[in-house]
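Table 4 source record.
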Amino acid sequence: MKIAIFNEDLLGIVKDGRVTDVSNAAGWDSARPHESFLSLIEQFDELREAIEKEAVLGMSYPLSEVTLKSPVPSTRKIWAAPVNYRKHQEEMNKMFNNAPRTIEEIALFLKSPESLSGPSDPILLPYRDRRTDHEAELGYIVGKKAKNIKEGDAKDYIFGYFALLDISIRGNEERTWRKSFDTFTPIGPWIVTADEIDDPNNLAMTLWVNDEVRQDGSTKHLIYDCYKCFEVACNNMTLLPGDIIATGTPEGVGPIKPGDRVRIKIDQVGEFSVDVKLAGEA
C-alpha cells in the first residue's frame, strides 16, 4: 500500500497514477496531521480493511493534479547513517580527506526533525558561497516502540519505506549542524508499507541533477543494511512510532546550486523531484 498526504493534509492511497482520499475510513483529522499519523501507524492492522475498501470506492484524483505533502507530517527524531557505502567513503577521502572511518566505527547521528520536508517543497540553501551536496538515500518509518531489538527482528518494527534526500553542507562543523537546516531532509513521494517491499536491502537507487545522472547505486551495497541500522539505533535509545531512519548514501554525491532540479528514484518505492533555491529568495 502506498500512503500519501496531499493537498490540505488529506490522507490518500496511491494506485495506478491516482490518489484516493481515505481520510474518513482512517479516522484522519486534517487539522491534526501529526496526531492522526501516529494513530494510523499504531492502529494500522485494525484500520487496514476499511482503508482498502475506501481506496476502491472513495473519491480519487490524478496524481498530476494534487500536491503531495511530506508523507510523515512531523517526527520526533531522525537517525541517519554516515559513510555506509565503501565507495562513498572512497570519494569523500578523495575530495575532502574526511571519511577515514565508516559507520562500523562511528555509528549513527541525529538530524533535526525540523529539517523534514516533502516531495513538493524546494530545498532552500542557507549560504550562496558554501558547497552543499545532494545525498540519495532509502529512508523508513518506525512502526512500533523498540528498544534493544536485534537486526533479525527489525523487519517487524518497520512500518514503511520512502525515498530521502540528505542535504549536506561541506565544512568542519559537526554533521548534525551541517545537515539539519530547514528543508534538508526531503522525503517522499509516499510511504510504501513494508509488506510491499520484497527486500529493502536490494533496491536500485538513482539521482539526477537536472538531466545528469549523479548517483546510480543499490542498497545491496550497504555496510549496515536497513535492519542493522535499526538495531544500532534502538540500542542507543528507544525508537518510537513515527521516528525516521535514513540509511546512508552511495557514491556520486555532488554539489547543488540555486536553479537546479534534483530527482530521486528508488525501485519499488517511487520518485520525486524538488527545486533548489536560495533561502530568502524562494
